[in-house]
Protein 1
Amino acid sequence: MDHDEDIESSEEEDFDDEMSGGEEEAVEEEETAAEKRKKVAEAYLEKTRAIARREKEDEEERERSDEGEDREGERDSLVAKILLQEQMEESGRVRKLIASRVQKPETSDGFRVLVKHRQSVNAVALSEDDLRGFSASKDGTIVHWDVGSGKTEKYLWPSEEILKSHGAKDPQGRAVKKHSKQVLSLAVSSDGRYLASGGLDRHVHLWDTRTREHIQAFPGHRGPVSCLTFRQGSSELFSGSFDRTIKIWNAEDRAYINTLFGHQSEVLTIDCLRKERVLTVGRDRAMHLFKVPEESRLVFRAPASSLECGCFINNDEFLSGSDDGSIEHWSVLRKKPLHIVKNAHALVTPQTLEQRENEGLPNGHIENGTQISANCCSSACSWVSSISVCRSSDVAASGAGNGFVRLWAIESESKGIRPLFELPLVGFVNSLAFAKSGQFLVAGVGQEPRLGRWGRIPAARNGVLVHPLKLS
């Protein structure tokens, strides 16, 4: 027995060597990932230092004799101040005050056509760096375009066989014979790697923005996928559908995570910031705020008509638009709107102008300085079909089919929101996207509304239009 203890096995040594080698490789990989993170952090810090350096150089020059160390310390404190300000703006605790800096647009500064589509544009999305944009229309075309030059590249739908191999199925599990390509919604991830699209085929499609190739098709919804959003800074994707559910996916792992319930009718719009809170708008006259980790939700009911769209201002406030032409300003702390702007997109017709001159308008409303009769208000053209907020700022925009996009200044809870300017634009404004810098506004326009054909404006141009915003 003593001799047996001294016997050494060559197989065990090989196994130990393999195990130790694997550990070393894993450690090397971890070190490489850490080095990458360190490199990114150093690059970002250097970039911020350069900004601080430029700001410092703009100030009056100081003596350079004995103040070298003091200036270095001042610059570092300025860097810390900039980083803190960015972090507070990102978290929604501080708003960038842009509304007071927006100059009145001149007549020559109107919307210009950036991308043309054959049919109505249903969705537009901008990348985090504001350099690239994406648009989708009712004809199933998804286009990737450059904001500066307007150069476009199309996303090509793969064959039915490839779609099936990527996971496409019908709700009952049988293979689909033919997929409807009509796209209703788009979303792009914060890192710009993934583009998600959803439409009438009841699937969430994932695309690689670098190669413009189809990666994955997520089945599961039993109705058209009407809205999509990525959580900021992550690969977590939320989808809303006509089947009244919200599903959570992971784009990186190509995996389904969870389903959220609560709406009694179709989900029309969805929005999400950095926190795991999802804001959804449904045709059941309700807006739900889902707190995903806590598995709870808050329900906000519209006072009158059906809600059409909604978006976050910050983590505690949000806006919504209704099909009666009103815009509501909400807070997490109250079940009812803080403020309501009625007839935000009122129709101005020759008949209305005549009545205004004669000062005789029975059953009319006077909001925002516009008089409008009740029969005009029921038209689909005055529905607030899209609303967007410039992230971490006090500027919002709303669109309808009445010939204008309106800019709004979001003030304190006691003051609400006030109108800034009207930007002329013919057609149904089905989607809006602000640049993160607030320097331009992108609109997806069509002759028909996004979710139906209950209105038509033949004079409208189907496409993506851009309007520059001059800041003082």
Protein 2
Amino acid sequence: MRLLTTLFLLLLLLRTAEPRRGPRSGAVERGARGRVRGRGRAGVMRRQTQECKEYMEAGEKYLDCQDRQLTAVMQDWPKDIHHLLLARNKIQVLRDNMFSQFTQLKSLDLQQNDISMVEDGAFSGLSQLTTLLLQHNGLKTASEEILLPLSRLTYLRVYDNPWSCHCSLDSLVRALQVPSNRNLGNYAKCAEPQSLRGQKLKKLNVDLLCANDNQVDRRPGVEEGGQPRPPPFKVKPEATSMCHTYMFPKPLLDCSNKDLNNIPSDLPSDIVKMDLSSNSIKHLRPKQFLLSKDLKLLNLSSNSLHHIDTAAFAGLLYLRELDLSNNSLHYFQYGVLEDLYFLRKLSLENNPWICDYNIHYLIYWLKHHPGVFYTGLICSEPQEFKGWRVEDYVKTYNGECPMDKQTGGMDTGQGGQGGTDNDAQEVVGETSERQSERLPRPLKEKKPNRFEIIRLS
């Protein structure tokens, strides 16, 4: 009996002990789950950080945090980055020492945020910074103090901000106008007051900034001279302010899909690549790219181009790639390509090329620039040559011409004598020992000498 009683008590003790073990076990489990969740949260933070694309290019580290809805800089970002891309986020204020941890930073892209204020020490610690992009924001005023830590700053973009040209902007404007700062603040304009709106900060008479403040009538609704104050002015953005500027890895002006009807005025002079594709540009006029002397790539594809004036590409001495595909071009006027000394690639696809006299200049130019790789020269008209390679059309055209046409003789309309089949198939402009170089007759015609001068001794 005692034995049974003892066993019963042991079983009872075991049952009463299990609930006490349960909470301890549950606590351990919850603790374990807590640690797992902690690791999970840390993992999420790492993933949030990893949402910014980190990559290397030309031995320098980039952190691409564009289009991330960010409102601030994260403290766990890598400290050794050289280029920080923060375009198209929701940053409103640049606080003191906001970027001071990135001491190796060379470029900082803050365009297309909601920035309305920059504290004087916002860029402290960025002694290596050479490029600062602040265009397309809401800045009205700033002082020279923001630039003082940036001893190596070379490029500053602040256009398409509603600058309030009053006395508080005096020090910044004076700094931008220093001759050595020729690439700082180009294209930025006053939005107010009425008397200065539309004027460029770089060319503004600085003495007017504070003078206007002293002359302003403070009565509500009244402007200088007692005239009623006009409604708030909104600066009409120029085409360049609608475009996106990227300075790294190479200076690029992206004006694609902006519904442009013309080439933007005041094109930046330091741009290497320019994308004007997918707009509604119909006509290229002379010298519109004259200031873009460093341009190496120009994309004009998918516009409505039907006419290019001679000298339209004047000044583009170093252009290497030109994309004119998907337009409405029929031919090139004589001389259009003469300034493109270093061109290496010419894209001409999907244009309605007309195979007649006018197309000969393009073939002539390409023949004398064998280093140019080109694509897309297919006849669309007339019907008998539709689908032909333009080069084949020109060869056929010359093959049917009498030899005296190719040597600058009179056009008799009869077949020539003495030429070989190979000679007849040569593209216009080909040189030989017995035949001097000539353009096609529609482009250049040598008139025969009708008079002979004989000196009598």
